[in-house]
Write a structure and sequence with these properties.
two-stranded antiparallel ribbon; 8-stranded mixed sheet; 27% strand; alpha+beta; M1 Pyruvate Kinase, Domain 3
Length: 212
């Protein structure tokens, strides 16, 4: 069984009020039934609010495993959690952070993508769930999801199989990367392997270079 794309979400930035301040955010995404073009910088119909920290080539698409939703339903009783609740463009099945490596490539529909980094939540995750502890919970869960860079533009849609086209030979998982960042893993060998990955996001490459 190949992993699958369960749902595709897009959204345009909206302004919300937080502590009396107006904040623009693109974290609110809604599922799309039709097939969409996945382009170099994002999906058709999707926009990011703050391009200094969101979007760009290395964060064109955010993927989050549907496999984690039961955990969150248990953690957040009574909270409605439709697909896209974590701001993800792609809700996937069968791709976990403990198995997927930075630099792994996948074909989805007629597009090809490569994994570049885990997701680090910003304050907008707290805003989305209207609770101050959501970032902390998200990091503690290690269920970060991961960002994708588009290597070949193409059409994607819910129900598409996700077919691995390349295994990165350095074998540094998304979870390893997150645990290094959180200071839970102290391994120069792992850091060196991470720095060998061609498609590791430049911001993470810089941070990891400094750790060595």
């Amino acid at each position: 069984m190949h992993p699958k794309l369960i749902s595709v979400q897009v959204g345009r930035p909206r302004t919300v009020n937080q502590h009396g301040q107006e904040v623009s955010t693109g974290i609110f995404k809604a599922p799309v039934e039709k097939r969409l073009m996945l382009r170099e910088l994002n999906l058709d119909g999707d926009h990011q609010a703050d391009l200094t920290v969101h979007g760009g080539q290395n964060k064109a698409v955010y993927a989050y495993p549907s496999d984690h939703y039961p955990f969150w339903k248990n953690e957040l009783p009574g909270v409605n959690l439709p697909w896209g609740s974590f701001g993800e463009n792609f809700t996937t099945a069968g791709l976990l952070e403990s198995d997927v490596c930075i630099g792994d490539r996948f074909q989805i529909g007629s597009a090809e993508v490569v994994v570049t980094q885990p997701r680090l939540p910003c304050f907008k995750l707290n805003l989305k769930f209207d609770r101050e502890d959501m970032i902390k919970r998200f990091l503690a869960s290690h269920f970060s999801g991961f960002y994708l860079r588009v290597l070949r533009e193409g059409e994607v849609g819910a129900g598409d199989e996700i077919v691995q086209t390349h295994n990165d030979e350095n074998r540094v998982t998304v979870l390893d990367t997150m645990r290094i960042y959180l200071g839970e893993l102290d391994s120069n060998e792992l850091l060196r392997r991470a720095l060998q990955v061609e498609y590791l996001s430049p911001s993470w490459r810089k941070d990891f270079s400094e750790l060595i």
